[in-house]
Each structure stands twice: as structure tokens, then as C-alpha cells.
Amino acid sequence: MRYEVEYLDPEPLAALQLQRLRRIAELAYANVEHYRRAFAAAGITPADLKTLDDLKALAFTDKETLRQNYPFGMFAVPMADVQEIHASSGTTGKPTVVAYTRADLKVWSEVMARSLACAGATDRDIVQNSYGYGLFTGGLGVHYGAIELGATIVPTSAGNTRRQLQLMQDFGSTVLTCTPSYTIYMAEEARAHGIDPRRTTVRIGVLGAEPWSEGMRREIENAWDMKAYNIYGLSEIIGPGVAQECVGQCGMHLWADHFYPEVIDPHTGKEVADGEDGMLVLTTLSKEATPFLRYATKDIVSMTRQVCPACGRTSPRISRIKGRTDDMLIIRGVNVFPSQIEGVLTQIEGTEPHYQIIVSREGALDNIEVQVEVNERFFSDEVRLLESLGARIGREIETVLGIGVAVKLVEPKTIARSEGKAQRVIDTRKL
Ligand code: DLL
């Protein structure tokens, strides 16, 4: 399935974006107190949005804005027009609530269908959807998209891994949608029950909702004999279906006809050049129920507007999520991203991609302990070999981070598994 809008030249795309932006800005301004104040603070009204650049006058919105307006303060339409509500749990504060009108659900279905198609899925595929159904947007978002695409959807949701594996074999699922960490867990469970995941019919994974690395991709593709594609999204903007890798696996195509991207230097608030890292800021161009103007995602990416060498789409591409401005740990004054540690671990033979980073403070000194699972074969080896593996991991992490960490090798299957997003960092510091 080819969606022409993904191949628009820059000028017609910008014209479409501006036309949609003006409508959504009017709606937000007329109905949401927060935006009325934001426009007033910038000294403009939606009528002053003559170009896309004029948007830059507005301050960012973020999760805190949603919390302050809990539960329905950001809604731009009457409740009678709201068809579906989602909320993200979040670790602190109140949940963040987002809503969809009937038209929003159509847009969501469309961008998710486009994402699945971009990964190579068609109406002949059987999509086993192991993202959680419920208030999390992963399950229902992928569900709507698969239906829109005309594929067969198997709504297994997350969990009950043995049953997932059973159904996968019996139904002949060809596309698996879940978090990358869950695919690894499923493969382990499969092997533990005498099933070779490489022999299943699954050919494509559409994986996201949490950070992962190229190393994990190799691991997953090898374990399943499938292609693993990265999908990005966030509840505030629509859920899954904001950006998606194509068969070239060279960045995620961002559906810029519905979501207007900026990449911002978090320190200066100014846009960075293409190819440079910054925080992704997104403006929803068609969402009616909870429109977001300049939403600060806190996700760090770089962006390119070059035509994709693999598929010819012109839609801008974002890199893997390189970290978050707020999961960045500051350890003894050094900025540390968990993804840097994962990058080292996936390069080292003998370790499994199951790890946890424990941050603690002794007196004034921050410490990191990296707990990492060692594979069965290594674990049954001599203690001396294990010790040298631990020392090597420690050295390599130190080279990348510039600070020393303690490494603790643990037995296979001892780090808690997650059916959804893996919890990688346990920060016990009272900061
Ligand atoms: O995780 C939506 C989603 C569902 C995306 C299924 C992809 C697949 P939230 O729970 O609101 O929504 O979490 C959004 O998750 O700001 C990122 O920090 C992170 N995230 C999402 N996709 C990726 C990805 C869903 N592919 C937050 N790589 C975002 C890295 C991701 N991080």
C-alpha cells in the first residue's frame, strides 16, 4: 500500500502543514485556557500564524502542563465529541490524560496503518499484537492500524507468554508487535519449551515504546529470523504511529503531515541543524480532542530531511531515541544515558540483553552498579572466566562513560522480566 502524502515535496507538505496547523491552533485557542494564555504571553493570536516558523513564538507544553490540567483541562472539544480516553501511568504525580474524537481515531488508524505498511506489512499478514491493551496506547493503536490496513489482528495483549507462543504457532502469525525486550523474553520462553523461534512464521517485528539499540536489533533478528523495525510514538501526540522505520532501517519516517517536528537544543531553546542531536518537539496538526502545540517530548533525536535512499519517501526521518533529557543520569557530574551502557553490553559476547542499572549514593558519592545476566554457557564456566568477563565489561563501560562502575554478573533469568516496558534504572538516591 502506497500513501502518496509520504512522498510530497517540501513546499506542498509545508502548505498542508500550515493549513492544518491554523485550524488546530484556532480550536485550541478557542477552547483551552492554557493555549489562550500561551498565545497571549507570545503576543499573538492564531491568525498571526502566517508561516510554520511563527509557531516558534509559543512556549513549549510538556507533561507538567497536562498534570496541572488534570483530568480534562486540555480538552478542546465537548465531552460529547470525545470517543476514547487514554492515560499514562507515569511514576510521579497524576496520570496524563489524552482524548480522541471520532476523527482523531481515524487519523490514528491511518498513521498506524501507514506505519505497519512502512515496515512491509500488508493485508495478507496476521498481526499478533502483544502490546498491552487498556489505558496504554500501544495495544489499541496498533489494533486500529492493523484493521485499517486490512490485516488480520490477533489481540493477544501483553502477558501469558506460553499462550502467546501457542497461538503464534497455531495461527501462523506473521507480524509481531510488542516491546523489543518482550520479544527477547518470548524467544527465551519459546526455547525453554522446546520451540525454536526461528522456525515460527513471524517475519516482521514492529517494536517500540522503549529505548533499544542496534545490538538488540541484531539479537532479536537472529533469535527470530525476522526483520525488526523500530516504531515511535507517545500518548500525548497520538500513541504509536508517529514515526516508523522502513525496510532500509535507516531512521524512522515521521508522519509530518499530521505531526510537525522541531529538534531543539534543550539549553538554548533554539532549533538545531539537521543531523544534530536535540529534543524532539512535536505539534499535532490534526488532533481535535487534545491538540498539542510545541509539545516537548524530552526524547533526544537527530533528524534528516533527505529523501530516504531505501524507499524514496520524503517524510523527515528521526534517529533512534538516543536518550531523554530527563532519564539522563548525572553521576559524579557526568551525564550518563542508560542507552550508552546497553550499547556496551550488546557488544560483549557472553552477556544477555537483560540488565539493570542501580544508582546509589554513599555520603556524597554517586555509584552505579550494572547488573547483567550472563548466558548459561558462561555461567557454568570457571569463576576465573566470569571474573575476567566482569572486569572487561567494567573497563569498556568506563571507556564510554568516563567514570567507573561496579559490575555484577548474575545468573540467567534473575533480572525481573517485563511484558511491557523494561525497567532499566533503579535510582535509590534521594536527590
Ligand atoms: O509508548 C506509545 C507507543 C506504543 C510507541 C507502542 C511505540 C509502540 P507512552 O507510553 O506515552 O507511549 O510513552 C512514550 O516512550 O516519549 C519515548 O521516550 C518512549 N518511546 C516510544 N517509542 C520508542 C522507541 C508509547 N521506538 C515514550 N524507542 C516516548 C525509544 C520510545 N523510546
Question: Key features?
Answer:
globular, 431 residues, 2 domains, 21 strands, 9-stranded mixed β-sheet, alpha/beta, Rossmann fold, GMP Synthetase, Chain A, domain 3
Topology:
Blueprint lengths: L9 H22 L1 H10 L20 H6 L15 E5 L7 E5 L1 H17 L7 E4 L7 H13 L2 E3 L6 H11 L3 E4 L1 H13 L11 E5 L5 H11 L2 E8 L4 E7 L6 E3 L4 E6 L13 E7 L10 E7 L1 E2 L12 E2 L4 E2 L4 E3 L2 E3 L1 H8 L5 E12 L2 E10 L1 H4 L3 H19 L4 E5 L14 E3 L4
Parallel strand pairs: 3-4, 3-5, 5-6, 6-7, 18-21, 19-20
Antiparallel strand pairs: 1-2, 7-8, 8-9, 9-14, 10-11, 11-12, 12-15, 13-14, 16-17, 18-19
The structure holds 5'-O-[hydroxy(phenylacetyl)phosphoryl]adenosine.
Give your account of this protein's structure:
It contains eleven helices and 21 strands. It folds into two domains: 79-325, Rossmann fold (3-Layer(aba) Sandwich); 334-427, ANL, C-terminal domain (GMP Synthetase, Chain A, domain 3, 2-Layer Sandwich), CATH 3.30.300.30. The model has no long low-confidence stretch (mean pLDDT 93). With 431 residues, the chain is of the alpha/beta class. α9 packs across α11. The strands form five sheets. Strands 4-3-5-6-7-8-9-14-13 form a nine-stranded mixed beta sheet, sandwiched between helices. The protein has a four-stranded antiparallel beta sheet with strand order 10-11-12-15. The structure holds 5'-O-[hydroxy(phenylacetyl)phosphoryl]adenosine. 5'-O-[hydroxy(phenylacetyl)phosphoryl]adenosine binds next to α5, β7, β8 and β12.
